[in-house]
Specification:
By secondary structure, the chain is α/β, with parallel strands linked by helices. Helix content is 47%, strand content 16%. The protein is built from eleven helices and ten strands. Helix 1 packs parallel to helix 2. The longest helix has 18 residues. The protein is globular, with a radius of gyration of 19 Å. The structure holds ligand T3D.
């Protein structure tokens, strides 16, 4: 746990990254962006890390951009494109490209970029008391961090428009019933459930799981022909991993497979 703004807890085969500015509901400032960037890069570089949990300290998951860094002098013209380009877009791209499953454990309110960073993860579970808020419209802003891409795909056009334009809180249970997240769970079981998922992934065929992420992401913009070609190519890659041989061998030997993962 050497990094204060993002706590890193190394477990057997996975890491827990905790956004750690609880007095600001874990809103992003420059330093927390840098800390999360480093924590993700270190997890990716560690072949022994086969899954991640992303969560928040305290009562919130993440309240998006820290607005106390957005108080401007009269006449000053903010350049928000610059911070999106420097921080939020690389973060979402990093989450999508990580070659391992990322479980987001939404422990409390997820607002603005915080809501969209959650839905950029692979599996989102949320405490029943958590809420998702596309807070941008209240500030005259546009959903960022992939929100305008993920939301319509997850919940459909009508709900995405209402969420983004009204900026009303969405409960975890409704988010689950709309297919925006995987599950809403009782608050006191959230982290147990997150650890259960990450421990499961920590012994799975990680390269294959990374290829599944790639295939599903690509399906969002491929037609069927392209997707069939991609599945052919990715299956070729998966079939060349030792974990595939191990999976088939374990099946015939009627035992649990011992997958190597990324090693
Ligand atoms: O700027 C760019 O670079 C462009 C990118 C933008 C990305 C974005 O995310 S824009 C959207 C920014 N976020 C918001 O607009 C959300 C603002 N926060 C809220 O609306 C509410 O705090 C919540 C709905 C999230 C939670 O409400 P509640 O009543 O549970 O808590 P609270 O009392 O409002 O907040 C607790 C404390 O956290 C409070 O501080 P205090 O009064 O105890 O000293 C509050 O000011 C602080 N806080 C919450 N969110 C932020 C924040 N401080 C700074 N920035 C925040 N985003």
């Amino acid at each position: 746990m050497e990094n204060q703004l993002v706590l890193v807890d190394r477990r057997e085969g996975y890491r827990v990254l905790t956004l750690n500015r609880p007095d600001r509901l874990n809103a992003f400032n420059e330093l927390m962006h840098a800390a999360l960037h480093d924590a993700l890069a270190e997890a990716e570089a560690d072949a022994g890390c086969r899954a991640l949990i992303l969560t928040g300290a305290g009562r919130g998951f993440c309240a998006g951009q820290d607005l106390s860094d957005r108080v401007f002098e009269p006449g000053q013209v903010p350049d928000l494109s610059a911070t999106i380009e420097r921080h939020y877009n690389p973060l979402v791209r990093a989450l999508r490209r990580l070659p391992m499953p990322v479980v987001c454990a939404v422990n409390g309110v997820a607002a603005g970029a915080g809501a969209n960073i959650a839905t950029a993860c692979d599996i989102v579970i949320a405490a029943r008391s958590a809420k998702f808020i596309q807070a941008f419209a209240k500030l005259g802003l546009v959903p960022d961090s992939g929100g305008t891409w993920f939301l319509p795909r997850l919940v459909g056009r009508a709900r995405a428009h209402a969420l983004a334009l009204l900026a009303e809180p969405l409960t975890a249970e409704t988010a689950e019933s709309w297919g925006m997240i995987w599950k809403a769970v009782d608050d006191d079981t959230l982290m147990d459930e997150a650890h259960r998922l990450a421990s499961h992934f920590a012994v799975q065929p990680t390269v294959g799981l990374g290829l599944i992420k790639q295939a599903l992401d690509a399906s969002e913009f491929n037609d069927l022909d392209r997707q069939l070609d991609l599945e052919r190519d990715l299956q070729g890659q998966a079939g060349r991993t030792p974990d595939y041989i191990e999976g088939v061998t374990a099946f015939f030997e009627k035992r649990q497979p011992r997958f190597r993962g990324r090693g």
